Predict the 3D structure of the following.
Amino acid sequence: MKKRLVILGSTGSIGTQTLDIVSAFPDRFEIVALSCGSNIELLKKQISEFSPKYVCVRHDADRLTLVDQYPDITFCSGAEGLIELAQVPNIDILVVAIFGTASLLPTITAIKNGTAIGLACKEILVTAGDLIMPMAKQYGAAILPMDSEHAALKQCLAGIDEDMKQVDRLILTASGGPFWERDGSTFSNIQVEDALKHPNWDMGAKITIDSATMMNKGLEVIEAHHLYQTPYDQIDVVIHPKSIVHSLVEFTDGTMLAQMGMPDMRFPIQYALTYPEKWTNPWPKADLTTLGALTFAKPDYEKFPLLRMAFDAGKQGGNAPAIMNAANEAAVHLFLTKQIGFTDIFRLVEEALSDFTHNSSPSLEELVAIDQSVKDKLGYTHA
Ligand code: MG
């Protein structure tokens, strides 16, 4: 039996790497549906290689052109189109590889159908983890993280009792991004081009900026809290510039398990797609004898205040992580389009957290509304 996949965001970084894995195991996966934004040329190549039955594009004008060219495919468009793809019958895994809260409602739709989620979108659990994790349990939908740190933690926790009583700490590693060693007093001079150069990982623009500000690690801390039901005072971050150790678990007996490998997103994506199995693949492996020293250091919360803000917002709970996430999404967009400077991202997130009213147990509708209000205030409309 082939695993039937739907990929939201098939032309992005995670989407294309997911399709690399599908190509490596053509007898074991079937692509049922794809969605993309506006990279129609790449979408056409993917259609001819993977023959999806359903395709969603962001703009309806693109749908109208494609309908004539591919009469055998069912097309849809926009935000409602994503929800339609999430409801395609008999899907094994919905791969959510669109950044931002745009995929929140399609993800919830799939969970309510009992479909497993391959989760590459951090903003979903950060915004609504308190609602989504119990919902996934209720409907029997697995949440399979497609991120190196959370996939690492999942492997280190394999065989550990669900009550987590044997676990002392989850330790997420962080590369530190391109500015880990840069003098913090020069951060206001950082240009978009500098921030888009990540030393180890090949990722989309939004997450690459998040890595440069270290908000990425803050979002991952909140995700780890939800995925593994771990209090924030039992989650730590260590700087590990080589990105070979992907995360660790420290147990009550003082020992640790680490998960290691090359910094290549195809490993955690494959683990999510094949879980709980491990399949032989052709990707380059790590050679310990050529890696040199693996180093670990404390994070600098002064230089990277968003990491501290993420811990604080996580501990505050309720709608605070949603406010922080929405302000960050908007601020990163403003930075990428050169409307604000690098350190303005820190300022706008901090201001949003103090400007918007705290709600300790928001409903889904309230979370969606606050996400929109914060983005509106910062003048961000997702293209
Ligand atoms: Mg990561």
